Amino acid sequence: MKVVVVGSGPAGLYSALTASERGAKVSLIEKSDKLGGTCVLYGCIPSKAMMFPLSLSYSSSKFGKTIDFSYGELEGFARNVTQRVSKGVEYMLESAGVEVITGRATMRSGKINVNGQTIDADSVIIAIGTNKPQFPGTIASDDLHFLERDFQSVLLVGGGVGGVEYGWLLNMAKKRVTIVEREDLLLPGHDLDLRQSVTSFFKRLGIDVRTRSEAKIGDDVKINGRSEKFDIVVFTFGRRPSLEGFEEIKGDKWVNVDEFMRTNVNNVYAAGDVTGSFTAHEAIHKGIVAGLNATGEKRTYDGTAVPKILYTHPEIAYVGSTEGKCVKLNMTEVVRAVTERSTEGFIKVCADETGILKGGVAFSERAEDIISVLAILIRLRVKLEDAKNLIFPHPSYLEGLWEALRRFKS
Ligand SMILES: Cc1cc2nc3c(=O)[nH]c(=O)nc-3n(C[C@H](O)[C@H](O)[C@H](O)COP(=O)(O)OP(=O)(O)OC[C@H]3O[C@@H](n4cnc5c(N)ncnc54)[C@H](O)[C@@H]3O)c2cc1C
């Protein structure tokens, strides 16, 4: 059996590995000369390489000490790690026996063409991700890791997840940060307690947060009609797939797929951001499902309880829905947080009337762990009453999750 995968991001990588593990002969086509896609080259990986040293600065400042990193040093960490992880992707594909072809793929009648040739295959997996927003006079979040130029002031257009993550990063890197957001709080569409706390925290950090505001970028930058000057302007939202060359696949903004990751074209699957999800872990799992089904399995993608993390400090993490009955615990009540002077933020857990856990938010240190554990409880449909009996270590941040669960009335 022959499978062709287009794209080497998380979705393409795991589609290819899965199909290959199931005995298919796999070719993966990537238009870039480096493997790994947005996540490895411009997104998850370089941003975290820059944020970790800044988290050390943030933590040490709580104890009256300063650790400084220049922007150039941070970019160096990003460059170094993207090369390393991209090589890792190359190695994984090579070890799995996947043939990698460099070139821009297009599709006609369900067949993939690249470098002037048509590749015959039983199944095709489209994992082409999205393109960064491109507006004259602006850059995208992707570009912030490799600017290689001096700048002091930065305008972030949009106070959603991108604006918040990079707002924190740039503020910690000692840049003058302005965030313009149309709505009255940062993080539109998210839990209200989270939005209020993060907006207030960002203002206390000294970030110029302009809510109920509009930025217009033309010959100059206007905020609410007034001209202002910034060294750089970053568009933090508006990624879209480029379906040029794939017109026969149906979709509006995103490619339409069913729960088997099948497109409207026979034997053509799609996975990852191109299908309208925005995290690498969703891309990976959609890729695995596509890889399985492209090689004869019948597996559905289950997107319940996917944890989402913003790697600021405190971290911002959430899962599921925060409607229904919720318990909110301030970090001042978590003894480990007190010992580490990390009492900013809160943990909130929500359940329905029958004691089924529905979701939660953590704006705290280790929010990543807290929400990942909550996500597991939700995914495995653990009842609130059973979750209360789980034993977490003391003193730990996870105890905050347990305490929130404990406070639900039986
Ligand atoms: C700044 C930033 C930070 C992010 N941080 C995080 C994070 O911390 N955690 C997280 O989970 N997610 C994060 N994301 C999102 C994450 O990067 C994406 O969800 C993930 O990369 C999607 O994977 P994918 O495989 O669907 O697509 P991509 O990673 O975009 O890969 C698509 C690949 O397809 C290739 N391609 C496209 N068209 C063609 C063609 N016609 N022929 C051949 N090749 C083609 C592209 O070159 C690319 O390599 C971030 C994104 C950005 C922009």
TrEMBL record:
Domain of life, source organism: Archaea
Domain FAD/NAD(P)-binding: 1-287
Signal peptide range: none
Keywords annotated in UniProt: Disulfide bond, FAD, Flavoprotein, NAD, Oxidoreductase, Redox-active center
Pfam families listed in its UniProt record: Pyr_redox_2 (PF07992), Pyr_redox_dim (PF02852)
A molecular function (GO) term: flavin adenine dinucleotide binding
Keyword DNA-binding recorded: no
Any single GO BP term: 2-oxoglutarate metabolic process
InterPro entries, sorted: Class-I_Pyr_Nuc-Dis_Oxidored, FAD/NAD-bd_sf, FAD/NAD-binding_dom, FAD/NAD-linked_Rdtase_dimer_sf, Pyr_nucl-diS_OxRdtase_dimer, Pyr_OxRdtase_I_AS
Residue span(s) of domain Pyridine nucleotide-disulphide oxidoreductase dimerisation: 306-404
Cofactor or coenzyme needed: FAD
SUPFAM superfamilies: FAD/NAD(P)-binding domain, FAD/NAD-linked reductases, dimerisation (C-terminal) domain
Similarity comment: Belongs to the class-I pyridine nucleotide-disulfide oxidoreductase family.
Protein's recorded name: Pyridine nucleotide-disulfide oxidoreductase
